[in-house]
């Protein structure tokens, strides 16, 4: 049976993104900023100043204090809100909100005011920076990178995907690595309520 999925992509290209009072992970190092934080040419810019060369990197969430996960082997920023039913084997930094039965695999990093709703999975090596919502049952694939304000529901993000900017995704299951920068919406116009999938994209 063939299924035709119509996908609408609307982007106003703008590769700069910023978010306040947050952290960002670059090449495995996490930088924290109390103010406007941007990533420009691979460098962390806090309130207009390059902080990539500073030595203020003392732990998995930079200078921020962390605690061991209740379930799993990971570390959690003391500012984060994490359900006791979430399994954290990676790192959760900043003011993230992690729901029931969420799985954050080893090597995955969550930075900033990101809400990850129940039953979502963030796979090994994935990095989420900034803000937004990862909806119920959504899967973020291995080594995927999400920067800025990304809202995802009823979807799965394939491994090695890179999304930067202010992007809304609804009812789309990426099957290959995708790179997108800008502001806009990616949606499945062929279904009113596509099912959420909690499976890794291959």
Task: Give your account of this protein's structure.
- The chain has 202 residues and is mainly beta.
- Helices cover 0% and strands 50% of the residues.
- The protein has strands spanning 7-12, 18-26, 29-40, 43-46, 49-50, 66-68, 75-77, 81-82, 87-88, 91-93, 97-98, 103-104, 109-116, 121-122, 127-134, 139-140, 145-153, 156-157, 162-170, 179-188.
- The chain is globular.
User: What is the number of helical segments per DSSP (H or I, 4+ residues)?
Assistant: 0
Mean pLDDT: 79
Q: Let me know the largest β-sheet.
A: 11 strands, mixed
Provide the helix percentage.
under 10%
Distance between the termini: 20 Å
User: Can you write the helix and strand succession as a string?
Assistant: EEEEEEEEEEEEEEEEEEEE
Low-confidence segments, given as residue ranges, are 1-20, 191-202
């Amino acid at each position: 049976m063939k299924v035709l999925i119509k996908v609408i992509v609307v982007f106003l290209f703008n590769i700069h993104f910023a978010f306040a009072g947050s952290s960002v992970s670059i090449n495995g190092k996490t930088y924290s900023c109390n103010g406007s934080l941007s990533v420009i040419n691979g460098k962390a810019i806090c309130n207009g100043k390059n902080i990539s060369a500073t030595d203020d990197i003392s732990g998995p969430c930079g200078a921020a204090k962390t605690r061991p996960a209740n379930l799993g082997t990971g570390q959690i920023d003391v500012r984060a809100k994490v359900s006791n039913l979430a399994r954290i084997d990676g790192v959760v930094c900043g003011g993230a909100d992690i729901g029931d039965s969420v799985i954050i695999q080893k090597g995955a990093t969550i930075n900033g005011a990101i809400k990850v709703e129940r039953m979502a999975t963030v796979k090994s090596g994935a990095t989420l920076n900034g803000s937004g919502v990862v909806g119920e049952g959504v899967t973020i694939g291995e080594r995927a990178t999400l920067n800025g304000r990304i809202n995802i529901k009823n979807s799965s993000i394939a491994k090695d995907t890179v999304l930067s900017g202010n992007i809304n995704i609804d009812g789309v299951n990426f099957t290959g690595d995708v790179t997108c920068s800008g502001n806009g919406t990616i949606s499945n116009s062929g279904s009113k309520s596509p099912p959420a999938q909690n499976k890794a994209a291959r």
